[in-house]
From TrEMBL:
It comes from Pycnococcus provasolii. The keyword Transferase applies. GO terms for cellular component: mitochondrial inner membrane. InterPro entries: Tam41. This is Phosphatidate cytidylyltransferase, mitochondrial. The keyword Zinc does not apply.
Length: 432
């Protein structure tokens, strides 16, 4: 993508996002709000932003699609291009949705609009469990285009990137996005978000390398990274819910953007730990137990916890006998320590974003968790089963979050769910 094309696309995406008129810092400055309800940051993503399906397809195609959509007359919802946004809100999600309902009641489907912010918050946090609420098929620019946007509290976003509790928002940021909004009036929030994204992408590269052999191709590396968040996604097994080639298509369409995100310049520590080198389309890594253990130590809290669970359930790390019993007991202790605290000490802004006024885990608890993570990493690396255990852990995490989120999305969309799914079916049929 040329610089001029990229700038043109970004300009149109920012304009489209601005058309949503979501609560901003300036709109939340009045005394009626006891807590901030402005939007911290927002990203555009998906096939309307990045081409999918061909590594030779120019990204200018996306720019022209957005441009045509913005300039078109009113198409029907089934024909219109829909652009996806992820919006990071302040931690008080209920207050943000209350403000947004007041400003944009039409963004919410009937049931959410009728029952208000408490129901929206309950649906996202208790039913969907990921705390991400999606408004879908939202018409903007006099209904010339349609938008789907997910709103997630900053604390949840940062925690998911740092721990992979749900790997939902984190999974989205492992793939290319376009930043369309940033609240520069909240530098601590911006710093926490950027730190979390960077950690998340380091972990994604480490997880992908652990699942790959000693030598592999550029496409294999990038497709493995893209596929992490789809490992257990229930939609991938449902006809027309998601196309089976989605991971492949995203990889081909965003090859250069992915290479930029996961370059040696951006991820120097992971390249160092894996001794990762590239020669043309062929990559080589150190696949020794020591290198694997070093990469395993880069994985987030809940990936490590689920690896303990997978090891116990499937006996993948050890053979039967006394050694197996010892390791099984050890994984129980490791998982308890990992549950109590993350194995990585969060930077100050990120720690404050996650825990807020709640008490953060003590330094001793973090140290014990780190010790458990190190013992787990060494044992897994020596077993030769690191790749399969990582994959099993990610399947467990993403299967639960995707099934809960899909159910919550259907309730949130209400009568809009049918046209939304018809768009997906039409797109899938068109690709055949």
């Amino acid at each position: 993508m040329s610089a001029s094309t990229d700038d043109s696309l970004l300009y149109r995406l920012v304009s489209l996002y601005s058309s949503l008129a979501l609560p901003s810092a300036s709109s939340s400055s009045s005394s009626e709000h006891s807590t901030p309800v402005g939007t911290c940051m927002a990203f555009a993503y998906g096939s309307a932003v990045f081409p999918q399906g061909s590594s030779h397809q120019s990204s200018a195609t996306s720019s022209s699609k957005v441009s045509d959509s913005l300039a078109s007359s009113s198409p029907s919802p089934s024909d219109a291009l829909m652009t996806d946004f992820l919006v990071i809100t302040p931690n008080d999600a209920r207050a943000w949705h209350a403000a947004n309902l007041k400003r944009n009641p039409g963004h919410y489907a009937g049931l959410c609009r009728l029952l208000g912010a408490p129901f929206v918050d309950f649906l996202a946090s208790e039913v969907g469990t990921t705390s991400v609420h999606f408004n879908t098929m939202v018409p903007v620019n006099h209904q010339s285009t349609f938008v789907k946007y997910g709103a997630v509290p900053m604390s949840v976003f940062v925690e998911d990137c740092l721990t992979w509790r749900h790997m939902y928002a984190a999974g989205r940021l492992q793939k290319p996005v376009k930043r369309v909004h940033q609240d520069d009036a909240s530098p601590n929030s911006v710093s926490a978000i950027n730190t979390a994204i960077d950690f998340n992408r380091d972990a994604a590269l480490a997880a992908a390398l652990l699942q790959l052999p000693r030598t592999f191709t550029t496409h294999e590396l990038l497709q493995t990274i893209v596929g992490l968040s789809y490992s257990g996604d229930v939609r991938m097994g449902v006809p027309f819910a998601e196309r089976p080639t989605k991971v492949h298509d995203i990889t081909l369409g965003s090859m250069q953007e992915l290479l930029d995100v996961y370059s040696k310049h951006e991820r120097p520590e992971i390249y160092r730990r894996a001794n990762l080198t590239q020669s043309g389309e062929t990559w080589t890594q150190d696949a020794s137990p020591n290198a694997n253990a070093a990469l395993l130590m880069c994985l987030p809290q809940h990936a490590l916890i689920d690896m303990c669970i997978s090891a116990r359930e499937h006996s993948m790390m050890y053979q039967a006998g006394s050694k197996g019993t010892e390791v099984a007991k050890a994984t129980t202790g490791w998982s308890e320590a990992l549950y109590a605290a993350p194995p990585h000490a969060f930077p100050p802004h990120a720690r404050d974003a996650v825990y807020g006024d709640d008490e953060a885990p003590s330094q001793d608890a973090v140290a014990e968790s780190s010790k458990a993570a190190r013992a787990l990493a060494i044992t897994v690396a020596q077993s030769g089963k690191a790749g399969s255990l990582v994959q099993s852990a990610l399947v467990n995490i993403t299967k639960s979050s995707s099934s809960n989120q899909t159910f919550a999305n259907a309730i949130a969309a209400g009568s809009r769910w049918a046209p939304y799914m018809w768009k997906k079916v039409s797109k899938a049929l068109a690709r055949r």
